[in-house]
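Q: Can I borrow your eye for a moment on a structure tokenisation matter? Would you mind producing a protein record, from residues through to fold? Write it directly below this note and I will take it from there.
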Amino acid sequence: MCTLEKRGGLFLLMLIGDGQHQITADLIGKLLSHLSQVKAQATPGSVLITQAQGKFFSNGFDLDRA
């Protein structure tokens, strides 16, 4: 689904797997959890980089699971 890695003041948020990374309630929950961690641990000058494995960063909403 997604991971968060911290390297000093750098936060790397990665959508993992080679799927389409469609947006679901589960993914939104995970992203919000990771963003809360970033907010709690960030210091002046911190940077958040988002990235994804596979062909798509996100291919939109998963309407079948909406």
Observations:
- The chain has one domain: 2-65.
- The first strand starts at residue 2 and ends at 7.
- The two ends are 17 Å apart (CA to CA).
- Strands lie at 2-7, 10-15, 47-52.
